[in-house]
Specification:
Blueprint (H helix, E strand, L loop, with lengths): L1 E3 L4 E2 L9 E2 L1 E2 L4 H8 L16 E3 L5 E3 H10 L6 E3 L6 E3 L12 H12 L2 E3 L12 E3 L4 E3 L16 E4 H99 L8 H21 L17 H11 L14 E4 L9 E6 L15 E7 L2 E3 L1 E5 L4 E6 L5 E9 L2 E2 L5 E5 L11 E2 L5 E2 L2 E7 L4 E6 L4 E6 L5 E5 L9 E6 L3 E6 L4 E6 L6
Parallel strand pairs: 3-12, 22-23
Antiparallel strand pairs: 1-9, 2-4, 5-6, 7-8, 10-11, 10-12, 13-14, 14-18, 15-16, 15-19, 17-18, 19-20, 19-21, 24-25, 25-26, 26-27, 28-29, 29-30
Helix pairs in contact: 4-5
Length: 521
């Protein structure tokens, strides 16, 4: 038995039970096909060809094949024939039986059946013909005639549906979740593929940066190489010039000596020979001076005169570094570190962690932040604390809704965007004093303390090196406290004790308790 998926569902309860039972009208596919989709004359199933369903004026449907055969067998009245079902006389149109209108209802049923999926109705193996049921409350399949307990014929409050319907629902839920899972997996794959493309681009950029920096180093090495070679060549040229000049002098002296000695064999004048001998004696001293080279041949390049080569090797070993990060943006968190008050600095701290949720201890991640106040851009600054924390600061100029969006590696962090409400600046309860050194004036007030017992307010006026005492109700001036512990305009804190006040001086690194402070001005 088959069930068509267009079965109508009847929300009626079984009379014998108080449990909710969703019933369905199951139509046997063969019975439905035989009753509505089969020609009653030839018992052939209607189709779109030879057995096309034709609608007769009497509202009966007969296939084209049977109508052609019936019309051809008419001998008395060739222009008409009788309906094979009700025997009503049917006039044949001018175009023949093929011109009869098609049966749109049967054609629609044929199309519907062609589109619909046939589903097997699960039945009980012990009770043929009995459909299995499904209890949504107990999440189990049962047969009404086999089951005991709440699933028998006794009344219960369980929700029961035919197992075929439950199976179809579960299949639809499964398909929906599978499609949703596939969609998320597809998005995940696209994200990972995009990250891979960015990684390839980053690797290419890193290679180019390495090549560029080492090209600069090679250029610097080549420059130094040329400088040393030029210096060696210049030194050699200078020495060569001096030695060549000395050679010329030696050759010149040699020529003079040879000239003095020429014709000496023919000379008979003793005085002339003696004069030449004296001159040669003088030249002998000059020749002795020329015998020692005025310049030496020493020329060497020294690389061991300092530790430059060692420092260069050490610097080269430390030159550059390849930075990576294990930060997982999806687990990083944002946290407000200050009150959201108009005009005050608003600080958001980004805490970075890795894929396993472990806190990062180093910085260097490319963090970008964008803030807005009521959809208007709000300038912000990102500070790397080099500890896995990043400080994002801004100063909202008005009350409203602030939004902070933070990206790491161009990917949003878990709490991004962080939204908060900026409160208006608190209005002062009382405005007192002015700038100066008078009785009702202040210069650099840094701290305030109140003594409920004495009903006094103490203002640490560091700029004037004093403590101003006011009445805590009327704010009327009472007196000034002056003490050596207040000297130097460097007091930063004040506290009230049972016997006086205590002030802290950062310059002298002292705490001073002032008791019986009636040496006031």
């Amino acid at each position: 038995m088959y069930c068509c998926s267009f079965l109508s569902r009847l929300g009626v309860g079984m009379a014998s039970m108080s449990s909710t039972l969703v019933e369905t009208v199951s139509i046997n596919y063969e019975d439905f096909n035989e009753s509505f989709l089969t020609c009653g004359t030839c018992l052939c199933t209607y189709d779109g060809g030879e057995h096309t369903p034709k609608l007769l004026p009497c509202s009966h449907t007969v296939c084209l094949h049977c109508l052609t055969r019936i019309a051809a067998s008419q001998t008395r009245d060739a222009g008409s024939f009788r309906c094979p079902i009700c025997r009503e006389l049917i006039t044949i149109p001018r175009g023949g039986v093929a011109a009869l209108p098609p049966s749109f209802l049967v054609n629609q049923l044929l199309d519907l059946m062609a589109r619909q999926r046939r589903e097997v109705i699960p039945q009980c193996s012990s009770h043929p013909g009995r459909e299995l049921l499904f209890c949504e409350t107990c999440d189990c399949v049962f047969c009404r005639h086999c089951a005991d307990g709440p699933h028998s014929d006794t009344p219960c409050d369980h929700t029961v549906v035919p197992f075929s319907i439950a199976l179809k629902r579960m299949s639809e839920i499964l398909l929906y979740r599978a499609n949703e899972c596939l969609s998320k997996l597809g998005s995940a794959r696209d994200a990972v593929a995009s990250e891979l493309r960015r990684l390839e681009a980053a690797a290419t950029a890193a290679d180019e940066a390495i090549d560029r920096h080492f090209a600069e180093l090679r250029a610097a090495l080549d420059k130094r190489h040329g400088e040393l070679k030029s210096a060696a060549a210049a030194a050699a040229t200078h020495k060569r010039k001096l030695l060549e000049e000395q050679l010329k002098l030696i050759d010149a002296e040699k020529a003079k000596v040879e000239a003095e000695c020429s014709g000496l064999q023919q000379q008979v004048e003793v005085r002339e020979v003696s004069s030449r001998a004296a001159a040669l004696g003088a030249r002998l001293g000059d020749a002795a001076a020329l015998a020692e080279p005025r310049e030496n041949a020493f020329l060497a390049v020294d690389f061991a005169h300092n530790d430059a080569q060692q420092r260069f090797a050490e610097a080269l070993a430390e030159l550059g570094r390849v930075r990576t990060s294990t930060t997982f943006p999806g687990l990083c968190t944002l946290q407000l570190e200050s009150a959201c008050v108009c005009g005050l600095e608003l600080v958001v701290v980004l805490r970075t962690v890795d894929y396993h949720g472990e806190a990062r201890s180093t910085g260097g991640d490319p963090v970008t932040a964008a803030a807005s106040l009521d959809d208007a851009p709000l300038p912000c600054t990102v500070t790397d604390l080099d500890s896995g924390l990043y400080r994002i600061s801004m100063r909202p100029w008005a009350a409203g809704a602030v939004s902070v969006r933070v990206l790491v590696f161009s990917r949003g962090v878990r709490d991004s965007p962080l939204r908060a409400s900026v409160l208006p600046a608190a209005a002062p309860l009382r405005v007192w004093g002015a700038r100066g050194s008078g009785k009702e004036q202040l210069s650099q007030p840094v701290a305030v303390a109140r003594c409920p017992k004495r009903r006094e307010i103490y203002i640490l006026d560091a700029g004037n090196s004093r403590v101003k005492v006011l009445d805590d109700e009327t704010f009327a001036f009472k007196t000034h406290i002056v003490n050596d512990g207040l000297a130097g305009r460097s007091c930063t804190g004040i506290a009230v004790t049972s016997e006086g006040v205590v002030v802290v001086n950062w310059r002298t690194r002292t705490l001073t308790e002032v008791r019986d402070v009636y040496c006031f001005n």
